[in-house]
Recover the amino acids of this structure.
């Protein structure tokens, strides 16, 4: 009897479809939002750091590829072994988060047009591999500020 073959093939087909979901865009698209954004008031005239959390409520991974701001040049940095370096992109997993936090991944602002003061807001535009750009405002906090909510 060869009967079981058809259901097995159907099951395999379903598995393949699921596996192909994110790659061919048939999953729900990335749905990105920003929270917990801030910039500690910079202690330098030329450099500043920025932090935020990107949440993806969609079923497809996306990647943060670049950031722009009127304040100056922005690069995305990762911290590994206490050393920070520029990164080409950071993944925002499907149904997941990308956290930029003190001591970890962060936005690096350089060649500042001015030194932001506590109470100001710094606008950034986040660019992604697939999604449309997302604008965010980073309120400038005291230099020693640490978010109290944690993760
Ligand atoms: Cu850095």
């Amino acid at each position: 009897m060869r009967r079981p073959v058809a259901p097995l093939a159907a099951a395999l087909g379903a598995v393949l479809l699921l596996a192909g979901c994110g790659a061919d865009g048939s999953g729900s698209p990335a749905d990105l939002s920003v929270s917990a954004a801030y910039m500690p008031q910079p202690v330098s005239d030329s450099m500043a750091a920025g932090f935020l959390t990107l949440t993806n409520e969609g079923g497809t991974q996306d990647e943060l590829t670049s950031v722009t701001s009127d304040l100056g040049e922005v690069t995305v940095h990762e911290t590994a072994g206490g050393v920070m370096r520029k990164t080409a992109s950071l993944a925002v997993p499907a149904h997941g988060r990308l956290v930029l936090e003190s001591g970890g991944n962060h936005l690096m602002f350089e060649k500042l047009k001015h030194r932001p003061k506590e109470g100001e807001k710094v606008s950034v535009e986040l660019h992604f591999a697939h999604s449309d750009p997302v604008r965010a405002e980073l309120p400038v906090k005291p230099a020693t500020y640490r978010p109290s909510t944690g993760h």
Summary: Confidence is low (pLDDT under 50) at residues 19-25. The longest strand covers residues 47-56.
